[in-house]
Structures are given as C-alpha cells and as structure tokens.
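Bug #77: duplicate submission created two jobs. Keeping one. Sequence:
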Amino acid sequence: MKKKIWLAAGLLGALLLGGCAAKNAAMDNANPGFTQTTDGMDKSDWGLGTNGGGQKLDAVQDFSGKEEAEEYQSVSEKLIRTITMRVQTKEFETLLSYLETKVSEVGGYIEHSQIYGGDADYSGYRSAELTLRIPQNSLDLFVSGIGENASVVYKSERAQNVALQYADTETHLKALQIEQERFLELLGKAESLDAIITLERHLTELRYEIESYAAKLRVYDNQVSYSTINLDISEVKRTITAEPDPTLFSRMKEGFINTFYNIQDGAGNFLVWFVTNCLYLLIFGVVVGVAAVLLRKAVKKSEAKSAAARKAYQQKMDEEQHDRMDTEK
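Kept job's structure:
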C-alpha cells in the first residue's frame, strides 16, 4: 500500500514539473524580448533588453564578457609619440624658414614658438624653442629632414599606447548614448510632472557625461593623429659632428681645436664687449677721475689745516715757556 502511495506521489511530482517547464517555454515564446542575465535580473527592466519589436539591443551584446574581450583584442595600437631634440645650426634663419615650410607641407602646425637673442646680445648668437605638431604618418620623414639640415646634439622619443584607454572611453560613451535614448523614450511616454522632471534631470546628467567622454576621445584622436616635437635650436659658428668610436688621436685633436676655438671666441667676445661698452667705460673713468681730484683736494686741505693747527699749538707752547722763564728771572 505504501509503495503505491509513493509511486502515485512521484508521478504527480513529475507531471507538475513537466507542466511548469512547458509553461516557462510558452512564456519565453510569447515574450521573446525577455533576456535573463547571470544575476537573475531582467534586462528589459534596464531598457536594454528589447527595442519594443522583440529584437535584442546591441547593448546586451556589448556588455557581455565575451564580446568585450573580443573587442579589446581587436583594438589596434593608438600611439602618442613625443620627440625631444636639441640641434645646432650655422644658418639660423634658413633652418627656421625650412621648418615653417615643411610643417605646412605635411599638414602640421606650430603650437609654440619663441626666439631669443639677436643684435642686442654681444655674442650675436640666437636660439629658438619650438613645439611642432606633425601628422604621425609624416613624423619619421620630418625628423630625418631636421637631421639633414642641422646638427643633432640630443634626441629622445617617448611613445604611449592609449588603445585600451581609448576603447574603454568609447565603450562608456556608447553605453551612455544607449541609456540616453532609453530615457528619451521614457520621457515621451511620461505623463506625470514628477516623472518628467526626474527624467529631464537624469538626461542633463547624461548629456554632461556624454560630452565629457566625447571630449576625451577628441583629445586622444588629436594626440594620436598629431605627434609632438619639442625642438631646441642654437645658432653657432661651427657645428661638431660626434664620431661613433673616436680614437685617442682624434680626441686629442678635437680637444686642441676646441681649446683654440674657445680662446679665439673668448678674445673676440671680450673685444666686442669692450668696444660696445667703451662709452660707459669713458663715463665711468671721468667720474672716477673727478672723484679722485676732489678727494685729493680735500686731503690736502685737511693736511693744511692739521699743519696750521700743529704750528699754532707749538707757537703757543713756546710763548708759555718763554713767559715762565721771564717770571723765574
């Protein structure tokens, strides 16, 4: 009897489970827009499950781990390249003219330019600091052109790959745009004033975030598309070409030439300084001469007064002594 009861209960449970499964299948077929997530939440509640026609929105696929991993793997490199160079040239004006023409030819622009020195400087040498923005596809050829028209003293390059940061920013922007569209749909269906005010407040916050992410992408695009060259230019009388592996004799020869050049250059600079400032030296000499004459006169006058005072004092002492002698007699 007990076996029959347990057998009947088992059959009843199987029928109930089968009925529930059939009911769930029927509900899924009746509502194809329903998408169950791993945490048990209905994405239709987020406004991301369907677009009202039973089709899944792209956001459901964008936020799945598999699709996101594939997206990051397919991201191409986005390099921000920055080059710093110090060069010397004997043709200062020619080099500046070449750079301006070449920057215009490759489609770049001069972000910053500053020139120092000139005729007022006794050395006569000039220098310039330039910040150039060059399209990345023309960067290497442009840098080679600088080396051909000037002597490169120092060069360094730094490359930063922002591909992951760019993809992450782009993903956030797409998600915010989809959320904005959903809120706009809800705003069109809202009837109460409180709901409209709440939705508009959220839309304002979303617009601000969207613009922030879009501006960040524009900055990345500009930095990637246009590489930066920080160029320091010095005008010199002669340029030095460094040998890759100099010998002892070549080092001694170069040292002697440098010493001779420094002496010659120093003597020339001193002569230029002396001639340039001779008027100041003349005025200074006149002032010093007049001061010396006046000081000498003041010293002589002081000495004369001191001598007269000593003479008067001695004469007074003699008179007093003479009076004492007369009194004793």
